[in-house]
Amino acid sequence: MGTDIASIFASGGWHVHMVEPSEERRSSFPDRLKAAVRMIPGGKGEFSFSLYAFLRELPWAKIQMAIECVPENLSVKQEVFAELEALAPPGIPLGSNSSGFPISLIGRGLATQERMLGLHFFMPAHLVPLVEVISSERTRPSVADRIMGIMSRLGKRPVQVRRDIPGFLANRIQHALMREAFDLIDKGIASPADIDAAVRYGFGFRYIAAGPLLQKDLSGLDSQYAAAVSIYPDLCNSREPSRFLREKVQAGQIGVKSGKGIYDWPANEGARQKALYEKRLRRALDILLEEEI
């Protein structure tokens, strides 16, 4: 995620300062950055960046904002933010790309929480337009507005989340869908392949043209209300992950990186599917960009 996010700024003409403790990862960064920048529509062909092993090495007087992209581990994120607060001059916004931890929890106990906010990108960050700009009760509104403007100028589609509730905005909607999908598998009602097809070729197909609320206005809220009366009582409302998901994770069958997940992943098939996935996203992005133009 760090590389993909860096590519967004690099393609927009920013000089990117990348901190990576691993020497191996640092050495591969230029090629990975170049590949990501090449896929961003309208990006600058030339870009500049610097690599560092430690935060303290950054030229902080030149930095305009900082984004943390460390693994999804709360204590690690809190340590990084404590160091960022100590090093970054007061006017620099500090953002976290956490997909689940509220910024109020990451910055808890720190003195400058008014400049801290969630800045949640979606994989692959260089292709998915959406960015969530998430404020805590302590985040200064002008900081969120400033970041919204930067994201817009970089060609992203920022949305403002005014309270840092668990899952923020998009992930809450996505997990509601996933809970129902896994429940349908648990109950033997549909196969994973048919669930994927139902979303891709059914209601998901429409979402590139209209979000769920606009689509319901187009089709009629009376129909939505009538369907809700009969369907809502039967929907899954479990507070625990599904049996199917739990058993997969406990068995170490976590997807492409383990060779088996919901589907089987023989050698090279994961890379092939990822390339196909990015190709489809790029074509979908062209539709959205054409609309913006």
Describe what is shown at a glance.
With 293 residues, the protein is α/β, with parallel strands linked by helices. The protein has helices at 2-11, 23-38, 74-87, 103-106, 141-153, 170-186, 192-206, 212-219, 221-231, 243-250, 269-292, and strands at 15-19, 48-52, 66-68, 94-96, 116-121, 130-134, 157-161.
Write the layout of secondary structure elements.
Layout (H helix, E strand, L loop, with lengths): L1 H10 L3 E5 L3 H16 L9 E5 L13 E3 L5 H14 L6 E3 L6 H4 L9 E6 L8 E5 L6 H13 L3 E5 L8 H17 L5 H15 L5 H8 L1 H11 L11 H8 L18 H24 L1
Parallel strand pairs: 1-2, 3-4, 4-5, 6-7
Antiparallel strand pairs: 5-6
Please provide a written account of the structure.
This protein has 293 residues and is an alpha/beta fold. It contains 11 helices and 7 strands. It has a 5-stranded mixed sheet with strand order 3-4-5-6-7, with helices on both faces. A two-stranded parallel ribbon has the order 1-2. α1 crosses α2. The longest helix is centred in the last third of the chain and has 24 residues. The mean pLDDT is 94.
